Inverse folding.
């Protein structure tokens, strides 16, 4: 079966519709069939519809995403209560141990992100992986950093990513590779992203799953949960009315 | 080609670059296509190195692998299609 490739972290300038359109078209040209763009918490339905229209023209499926950057676990919980049902993907930037533990435990969080260059505040360890493996959280790795960083910083990042990818694989925690691209130059084909993942010893099969099966599964699961027919996992409303 | 060698060398060092066997076969500046030969064991290494290129000199660029083939004839036929 042909793989469906997804990029869950495209970062265009939302104030510039031409830029948004150019990035979406480039993603479609490179073979992505599903993309997600982080939106502000106060974005309107009209803005979402506009982006959906651009994606439909480029023949790409669009998933709405929000990036949370809470300072405390309580702030994370209150944000999740407010926004979970409004966005298809929730990502949390974990820059403190408490926030990362809470995010890993919480079944409303889809993606765990860690500070890219602040290596002391990357708390993805075995305890975190164990918590995440018991919920639905997935480790997200933004690949644009491997393109923009150079020298010792990139070497250190690769070393950290190798360790984290190894921990994630050990706990059977899914990994998602996203571009994090804010312009077309930083976008790469899915197979090229998988090739870049070999730099931190992710196997080819795992890397291809990280750009296809894993992100698509997240969106599919959440769309099912957010649909009006959803009652509980495995239970949905098929028909309503007097004579069912 | 220097930029490609530089990218491979940066990521994999001189030892890794020596295993790749990179050779330029063809280059079309107008279309922006190049055909590069690489050893079979180093295909993924070359893909990663090409993907990691973000500039040549001062010019920002992005390199995408269009197709991979065992023979040059089959490669050109794939590209035409």
């Amino acid at each position: 079966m042909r793989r469906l490739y997804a990029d869950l972290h495209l970062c265009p300038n939302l104030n510039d519709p031409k830029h948004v359109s150019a990035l979406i078209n480039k993603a479609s040209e490179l073979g992505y069939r599903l993309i997600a763009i982080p939106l502000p918490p106060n974005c309107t339905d009209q803005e979402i519809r506009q982006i959906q229209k651009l994606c439909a023209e480029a023949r790409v499926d669009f998933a709405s995403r929000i990036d949370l950057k809470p300072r405390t676990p309580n702030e994370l919980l209150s944000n999740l209560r407010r926004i979970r049902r409004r966005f298809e993907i929730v990502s949390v930037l974990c820059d403190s141990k408490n926030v990362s533990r809470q995010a890993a435990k919480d079944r409303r969080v889809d993606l765990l992100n860690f500070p890219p260059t602040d290596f002391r505040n990357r708390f993805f360890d075995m305890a975190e992986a164990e918590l995440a493996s018991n919920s639905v959280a997935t480790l997200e790795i933004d690949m644009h950093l491997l393109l923009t960083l150079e020298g010792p910083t990139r070497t250190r990042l690769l070393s950290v990513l190798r360790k984290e990818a190894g921990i994630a694989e050990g706990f059977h925690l899914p990994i998602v590779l996203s571009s994090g691209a804010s312009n077309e130059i930083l976008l790469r084909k899915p197979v090229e992203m998988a090739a870049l993942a070999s730099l931190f010893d992710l196997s080819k099969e795992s890397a291809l799953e990280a750009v296809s099966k894993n992100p698509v599964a997240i969106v599919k699961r959440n769309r099912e949960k957010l649909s009006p027919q959803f009652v509980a996992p495995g239970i949905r409303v098929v028909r309503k009315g007097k004579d069912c | 080609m220097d930029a490609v060698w530089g990218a491979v060398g940066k990521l994999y060092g001189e030892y890794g670059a020596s295993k790749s066997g990179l050779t330029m076969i063809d280059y079309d500046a107008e279309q922006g296509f190049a055909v590069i030969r690489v050893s079979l064991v180093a295909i993924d290494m070359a893909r990663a190195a090409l993907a990691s290129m973000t500039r040549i000199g001062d010019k920002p660029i992005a390199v995408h692998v269009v197709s991979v083939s065992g023979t040059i004839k089959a490669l050109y036929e794939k590209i035409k299609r």
Observations:
- DSSP finds ten helices and nine strands in chain A.
